[in-house]
Design goal:
- This protein has 154 residues and is an alpha+beta fold.
- The chain has two domains: 41 residues, Arc Repressor Mutant, subunit A; 82 residues, Lrp/AsnC effector binding domain/regulation of amino acid metabolism (RAM) domain (Alpha-Beta Plaits).
- It has five helices and four strands.
- Strands 2-3-1-4 form a four-stranded antiparallel beta sheet.
- Helix 1 crosses helix 2.
- The radius of gyration is 20 Å and the shape is elongated.
- The protein starts with a helix and ends in a 15-residue tail after the last strand.
- The relative contact order is 0.17.
- It comes from Novosphingobium resinovorum.
- Keywords: DNA-binding, Transcription, Transcription regulation.
- GO terms for molecular function: sequence-specific DNA binding.
- One of its GO terms (biological process) is response to amino acid.
Length: 154
C-alpha cells in the first residue's frame, strides 16, 4: 500500500494518542475531518491499522517480573509446531512469541508476578509442552526503551 504524507501524518498522530479525536488529527495534518475519517477507515480496512488497545503497566497489575524465554523443539515436525503454538496462544502470561533464527527456535516474552511464578510458568508449563527440548530464561532487570510505534517517515 502506498502512503502519502497525509496518511503518514494520520498514523503518526494516532500512534502518539489513539484516542485523539478526528478533528484534532485533521488539524495536525491540515485536512478536514471528513477526509481524515475516510483515510482512517481505509487504513483500518487495509490492515495498516490493526486495532486500538490501551497500553497497560504490568507492574500496577501485579506482574513485577518480565522475562524472555528461549525455547528449542525436539524436532521441527508439523505436529510439534502446532502443539507448541497452540499452547503458547493459550497461555495468558505469554505476551509475545517469535520464531527466530540462530541456536533457539522461539523467543517468548513472559510476564510473571515474581520469580516463583516465573518458575511455575517455565518449568510446569513451557517445558512440559510436548515437543519442547529445552528452555532458557533471561530475566529483565530494567527496561530502557519500549515503544510499539512504527517509524513513519513524514
Amino acid at each position: 500500500m502506498q502512503l502519502d504524507e497525509f496518511d503518514r501524518g494520520i498514523i503518526a498522530a494516532l500512534q502518539e494518542d489513539a484516542r485523539m479525536p478526528v478533528a484534532q488529527v485533521a488539524e495536525r495534518v491540515a485536512l478536514s475531518a471528513t477526509p481524515v475519517s475516510r483515510r482512517i477507515k481505509r487504513l483500518e480496512d487495509e490492515g495498516v491499522i490493526r486495532g486500538y488497545a490501551p497500553v497497560l503497566d504490568p507492574r500496577r497489575l501485579g506482574f513485577e517480573l518480565e522475562a524472555y524465554v528461549l525455547i528449542n523443539l525436539v524436532a521441527h515436525v508439523d505436529e510439534n509446531i502446532a502443539r507448541f503454538e497452540q499452547a503458547i496462544a493459550d497461555n495468558p502470561y505469554v505476551i509475545a512469541c517469535h520464531a527466530v533464527t540462530g541456536d533457539m527456535d522461539y523467543l517468548v516474552r513472559v510476564i510473571a508476578r515474581n520469580v516463583e511464578h516465573l518458575s511455575q510458568i517455565t518449568l510446569r508449563t513451557l517445558l512440559r509442552i510436548p515437543g519442547v527440548r529445552d528452555v532458557k530464561s533471561i530475566i529483565v532487570l530494567e527496561t530502557i526503551k519500549e515503544d510499539r510505534a512504527v517509524p513513519v517517515e513524514i
